[in-house]
User: Fold these one by one.
Assistant:
Number 1:
Amino acid sequence: MRESLCHSNLVKRDAVLVNGMYLNGPTLDIKTTYKFVEDAVSLILDEAVRKGTDILEKVCEWQPPEKLKEILDLELREGGEPHSKILKRCQDVIRYSVKTGHPHFFNQLYAGMDPYSLVGRFIIETTNPSLYTYEVAPVFVLTEDAVLRKMMEFVGWQEEGDGIFSPGGSISNMYAVNVARYHRCPDIKEQGLSAVPRLVLFTSQECHYSVTKAAAFLGIGTKNVYAVSSDERGKMIPAELEKQVLRAKAEGACPFMVNATSGTTVLGAFDPLDEIANICQTHNLWLHVDACWGGAALLSRRHRHLLKGIQRANSVAWNPHKMLTAGLQCCAFMVRDKTGLLQRCHSARASYLFQQDKFYDMNYDTGDKSIQCSRKPDSFKFWLLWKAVGTYGLEERVNKAIALARYLAVEIQRREGFRLLMEPEYANVCFWYIPPSLRKMPESKEFWEKIHNVAPLIKERMMKKGSMMIGYQPHGGRANFFRQIVISPQLGRADMDFVLDEIDKLGKDL
Amino acid sequence: MRESLCHSNLVKRDAVLVNGMYLNGPTLDIKTTYKFVEDAVSLILDEAVRKGTDILEKVCEWQPPEKLKEILDLELREGGEPHSKILKRCQDVIRYSVKTGHPHFFNQLYAGMDPYSLVGRFIIETTNPSLYTYEVAPVFVLTEDAVLRKMMEFVGWQEEGDGIFSPGGSISNMYAVNVARYHRCPDIKEQGLSAVPRLVLFTSQECHYSVTKAAAFLGIGTKNVYAVSSDERGKMIPAELEKQVLRAKAEGACPFMVNATSGTTVLGAFDPLDEIANICQTHNLWLHVDACWGGAALLSRRHRHLLKGIQRANSVAWNPHKMLTAGLQCCAFMVRDKTGLLQRCHSARASYLFQQDKFYDMNYDTGDKSIQCSRKPDSFKFWLLWKAVGTYGLEERVNKAIALARYLAVEIQRREGFRLLMEPEYANVCFWYIPPSLRKMPESKEFWEKIHNVAPLIKERMMKKGSMMIGYQPHGGRANFFRQIVISPQLGRADMDFVLDEIDKLGKDL
C-alpha cells in the first residue's frame, strides 16, 4: 500500500508562490506535533481520568467567575503559544473544571465515567466523522443502526421501528412534536402552521422544560401546551389528561399529541403509560414517551415495569448518556412507524450529498432523516460500552443505582435532621436537611422559609470545599430540597452514608 | 486535601443487601480499568492520529455494507467481552473508518486534523461537562464567552452582540429563523404561528438545504421559503431578491428575513452582503448570514473583503469546525442584538436548573439562551487551538488553503482533460475530468450525458483503492463534476498535483 500511494509527484519541487504564499510544504504536519499530543493525552489521562475519578480528590476547585477569568487568561491574541504553555493551560482547564465523572458528583443526570464509552469517544474525536452518508462514516452508520435496533427491542418493538440519534433529549422531544404533527397533517411541512387549525399538545406539569421549548421553537406556541396535573408522586393523572383533551376539543382546537414522561427530572416519576395510551387511542393522539432519564430501567428485568405500556408509544426519546454513562451526548429518538415517516418528515434531498448514482446501496445514507447536516456518531460510544459489559452488565448497573437510592432513602428516614420527600422509585432521592436549630420548630410558614435557605447555603459550602456536588431546587409549593442523583457504577453504600454525613457536617450550624 | 475528604465512613463495613444487590463495593472502578484506557488510547493515537494522517496510508479501507456488518459483528449480546477483544474491535473500527483527517480527504467541509483542537476534544470528553450553568462548567462557560466575543470582533461588532454555540450549522440557521420571527412578533413564542399572517423568508437557490429544513421544522412551511435566483457564479442577485420581497408583499404575506450565504456549499460563492443589507433595511427584514463555511475568511486580511458588509447582519452563523479544523461540531450562532433577545426568545426558566438563589452571579448561567438542555462546550477546542497558533496562525491557514485552491485551478486549466467550472474565490474547486475517449467529441447532449457518468465511476475507483476522497455532484443543469475542498494545514502543492494525476490515472480508460 505504502508504495502504491507514494507517487513521484510528492517529491519536493521548486517553490511556487501564489498570493504571497509559498505552497510547497505543509503549514502544519500533525506528525511533527505528535509528541505534543502524546504529552497532552498523558496529562489528561492522569489529571482528568485517574485523579478526576479518585474519591480522595476534590469534585471541584471552586473559583468565582472574575477570579477564574484572571487565572485562565482567556484573551485570544495575534501570536500563538509554545507547547509547554499550552500544556500548562490544559492542566489549569482540567483543574478548575468540575469532575462530573467523580463518584461524589450527584448534581446532574449524566454523572459518572465509564472507561469503554470514554474510549469510544476518543475514537469518534480522532476519526471525526459525520453520520449523513455511508461513504464517509461506514462503521458509524452501521453501529447506529445496531444500537437503535437493540434499544427498540427493549422498548418492545420487534419488527417495527426507525430512529436517529440527536444532540440532546430536548431536540429528541422536538423531533417527536414535528413527526407527530406531520403524521396528523403532512401538508404542514410545505404549507406551514398558518394554514392549519390551532394544534394543542398535552404534557404533565412535571415534564421536562424542553416540551415547552419545543412548542415555542416549532411555532406551535407555549400556550398550546396544555399542562396536565400530576399526583403527589409526580405522575400524570390520566383523568386530568382526558379533561384537557376534551377542553381543547371544545375550544375547536386540534389536539394531536401527548408527551408522557418516564423518569421526571426532579422527582424521577413515571407516568402511567398504559392508561395514557388508552386515552391516546380513544382520541387519536400521538403518544410520545420522554424516557430520556428513565429509559435505562427497560434493561432491568426487576424495574422495567416502571415503563409498562411503552411499546404502545408512537415515539420514544431515551438518552444512554444519563443512567447508562455513555457520555454527553448520546440521545436516541425512535418512532414505531416503519414506513419511512421520519425520513419523509425531515428530508430535503440535497443532491450534492445524497447523490442517487452512488456505487453502494444508498439506503445506508441515513442523514436525510435528520434535521442536522453534519452529525456526530454518538451511538458508537454506547455500542462499544454495550459490547464490553453486555446487557447483563448494563442491567446490573441500573439495579445497583436504584438499590443504592433506596438504601439512601432508608438512611434518610433513619437519621435525625433529614426528611424524605417521598420513597424513590428510581435513582432520584429528594430530601430536606433540617439543621439542629430548626428541629424543634413547629412547621409554620416561617419554618419552611428558613428551610428554603438551608440547601443553597450548604451547596455553597460543599462547592467551596469541593467535597461533593448535589443539586437542590424549589418545586411546586415546596421549599428548596436536595435532589441526589445516583448513577456512577463506582458508587457503594459508603458513598451514600458520606453524603448524609457531609451535609450534616456542612449545615449543622445553620 | 486527600485527608480532609477521606472520611471514616468510607471504610468498608458489613455487606448491605437491597433488592438482591450487595451495595458495598463499586460495580466498576474506573481506576481498575485504567490500564485498558491507556492501552486503547495508545492504539488510537497510533492508528487514527499517526497513521490516519500519514499521506502514505489509505484514506479509507472500503467495504460494502453487508461485508462490513460481518467483519464488525454488530450484535449486542447479554454477556460482555474481555479487554483484549474490545481492543481488537477498536482497531477494526478505526481501520474501516474513513480518515477524515488524512490530507487526501477532500470530500467534505470538515477535512483535516489539528493537534490542538484534538487535545481540546480529549479534555471535553474526559471532563464531560454540560454548558448550561457556571456551576458545572465554569471554565467552559468562560471560554465560550471569550471565543464568541473574539469572533464577533471579526464580524465587525464591537460593543454589540450575543451568541451561543450549537450542534451544527443547520441548527444555527434554525436559531436565526426563530430569533428573526420572534423579533418581528414576540407573541409567536406564546401564541404560535396559527395566530399570525403567513411569514415568508428569502434565500438564494444556492443556499444550504438547512434553510428549507428550518422552515419545515419551525412550522413556517417550505413553500414560504422564496428562492432568489443567483448569477452564474452562484451569488444571489439583489434585484431578484427585491422582486421576491415585493411579490410576497403583493400576496399579503409577511416577509421577515433574508438568509444570505457567505461560502455556498457547492461553488463556494459569497452573496453581495452590502447590497442585500440595503434591501433588508428598506423592507425592514432581518438579515441572517450563513457564513458557516466562508466565515473563516474574516480572519484573513487578504480575503475578508469576500464578506464585506457582514457587520450589518442581524445574525451570523459561522462554523470553526470547517475551514478552521476545530473538529465536529463547533458552530457559533451570533446576533448583533445586545438586549437579551436570544435569551428572551428561547428561555423557559426551569427552576430546578436556573435557581435564582445561587451564591454566584447568575448571569454566567447561559443555558436558557439555548434550545438544548445539556450542551457540549464545543467552543473550547477552538479556544485552545486559537491560543496555540494565534490569530496570525489561523490567518495563514486560511490564506494557504485559498492559495492552494488557486494553484489547483491554474493546473486544471493548464492540463489536458480537465475543465474548470469557474475561477475559485475560496477553497472549493469545481471541475470536470474528460477522459481521452471524449476529448474530441463535440459538446452535445450526449457528450454531457457521458461526462455525467465519469465522476461517479472515478469516485468508486478511488474509494476502492483508498487513495483519496473527493466529492462530486450534479448542480443546476450541469452534469456531475468534482468538487475539491482544500482545508487541511498539512497540504502542499504536491497534493494538488497528486489529485489531478490520480484522477487521470483512475479515469483515463473511461
Number 2:
Amino acid sequence: MSTSKPPIIAIDAMGGDIGLDVTLAAVAHIQKRYHDVRMIVVGDEPAIRSHKSFSAIDAARIDIHHTTQVVAMDEAPANVLRHKTDSSMWKAIELVRDGKAQACVSAGNTGALMASSRYILKMLPGISRPAICAVVPSRGGHVHWLDLGANVEAKPEQLVQFAVMGSELVKAVDEKPNPIVGLLNIGEEAIKGNDMVKETSKLLEKTDLNYSGFVEGNDIFLKEKLDIVVCDGFVGNVALKSVEGIAKYIQTTLEQEFRRNIFSKIAALFSLPVLRRTKARIDPRRYNGATLLGLQGIVIKSHGNADVFAFANAINVARLEITNGIIDHIRCQLDRQQNRPAAEEHTA
Amino acid sequence: MSTSKPPIIAIDAMGGDIGLDVTLAAVAHIQKRYHDVRMIVVGDEPAIRSHKSFSAIDAARIDIHHTTQVVAMDEAPANVLRHKTDSSMWKAIELVRDGKAQACVSAGNTGALMASSRYILKMLPGISRPAICAVVPSRGGHVHWLDLGANVEAKPEQLVQFAVMGSELVKAVDEKPNPIVGLLNIGEEAIKGNDMVKETSKLLEKTDLNYSGFVEGNDIFLKEKLDIVVCDGFVGNVALKSVEGIAKYIQTTLEQEFRRNIFSKIAALFSLPVLRRTKARIDPRRYNGATLLGLQGIVIKSHGNADVFAFANAINVARLEITNGIIDHIRCQLDRQQNRPAAEEHTA
C-alpha cells in the first residue's frame, strides 16, 4: 500500500493564471512544512531553474521533468488531447499513470485537466466520468461538496457513486468513520424535488452509507451534522459560484463602509485583528484544492488564480489523499456497492 | 387602467410563522408611509380587532375581511385546495380575482400560495406555471432573479417566458427601458452547459429582449450590467438558499470574532455604525417580497419568518407592481412574443 512510502507529487508548474511565480514558491513552502514529501516539478526546465523563486527550493528534494508545451486557460479540451501531449499538465498526469508520482496538482483549465485525466488515467470500474469535490466551511467545521461542475447532467446511479466516493474521501482524509451524506434538494419534505433527486434518495437509502436525507442550500453551511453534500454538476457549480459571488460582495461592501469616513477608518484600525481572523476562517484559499474523484489516480485541481498559500493548500490535499490511500479505499467501496468481490482480489 | 386608481392590497393577516404580530404592525407602517394605499386585512376579525397592534392602524383606511381558517406552514397544497377555502390566504387571492383588490400579499407556505393562486386567478395565456421572482443586491444595485423554486424542471420555452416576464417587471418597477437579461449557466463559453440552457440561449437570441448571454453564479452579485437572471426553479432555489446560508455563516463568524475578547469587544463598539450600514445594505429583509409571475393577478410572497420591516417591504412591492400596471405589461409582451395581436384587442 502507498501509505508507508513517502508521498511523491507531480506539480504542473506552468498551469494557472500566474504559473511559476505561484507554483515554485508553493513547492518551497511545502518543502519547509513537510519534510517527507517529494515533488516532481513539471514544466520548462530552463525557465524553472532560472526563476527567482527557484533559489528557495531545496533542489536535492525535487525532480524536474522538462516539458515544452503549456495548456492555455481557455484551450479546448479536444485540442489538448490532440496537440498538447508534451504539456506540463499532460506529463504531470502521465507521471501518476506510470507510478512515478502518486498524485498530481494543476491550476490549469478544468475542462482540459478533466479530459486529459480521464484519457490518461482512466476511470475506476463502474464510474463513467469524474466528479469535482471541494471543501467548504460550515458550522460543523467543513463539508465536502460534489459534483461542482464535472458533469452537466447526472443520473441517480451516478449521484449514488458521488456519495460513495465522497464518503470514502471523508473517511480517509478527515478520519471520520461514518460520515453523514445529504442530498441537495429544494425542500426537506420528500414530496418536493424533481424525479432525479427522488429516485436518487430511494437508491441512497438502500446503500450502507450514512444517508441523512435531503438538505437545502443553506444547510451546506449551517447544518452541524453534515459531512458530504451531493448534487449534479450544474446545480453544484452554479450554487458554489453564487456563494463565491455573495461572499465577495459582502467583503467589498464591508470594506467600502470601513473606508467611508474618518470615524469608520479609525474603527477599521481597531477592528483589524477581528477582520483578519474572520477573513482567515472563511478564506477560500484555505479550501483550495478540489479532488477529481473517480479516476484511477489522484488529481487535484487548484483555482486558476490561486496564490502561493492557496496553491500550497492544493498540494497538501494531494499529500493527505496519498497518505490515506484514498484511491484504494474508493475502489474497494465501489466494488462493495456493486456487490462484487473487493478490488484487491481482482488486481492481485 | 389601474395606474390612476389608488392601490388596494389584500393582506393575508394570518399567514407566516408569526402572523398578526407582524402583519398588523406592517399594515400600520405602510399606512403611515403611503397615504393613498388601501388595504383589506383578511383573517379572523375578532382576533384582528382585539390584537395589540390594531390600535396603531387607522381603521378608517382599511377593510377587514373575516375568515375562519388558517393555512398551516407545512400544509400540503392539495389539502388547501380541498379544505381551506375559507382561509385568509385563499380569500386574499379571491379578492384579487373579484377585482376587490389589485394584489395580495402572504407570508404563508409557498406551495399552498402557488397552488391556490393558480387555481383561483388562472395563468396568463401561454404560461403553464408561475415563476418565483425575487430581488437580490448586486454591484449594479440589484438584480431580479427567477425562477426560485416554483418549477422543479423547466423547458427552454418556459425559461424564455421567465425572461419576458422578468424584463417587463424590471421595466415597470425599476423604470429601466431595456433591462439586461442573463441566462444562468456553468460557464460563459457557449460550449459549456447542458442541452437545456444551450437551447434556451438560442431561443433568447431570437427574441427582442436585451439578452446578454450566459452568466455564472458569481455574476449575479458582481456583474454591474445585469438586471435579470433566469434559471430553472431547482437551480435557482438551491443557489439562493446556498447564498442565504453563506451570508448567515459569514455574519455569525464575524459576530463570534467581535465577541472573542475585551479588545475585539472595544473594536465592535467603534465599528457599530459601519457594521450597521453594511448589514443594512445586504439585509435580506430589504429584499423581502417575491413576485409569483405568470398569474392573472399580482401575488406577492413574503418570507415565512419576515418581521414587520420585511413584511412591509413585501406590501410595498405589491404597491409598486399595482401602480406600474405590471400584469397588463406582461400580458401585452407575452402576446407580442407569441406573435399574436396585443392583449387589449383580445380583451376589449
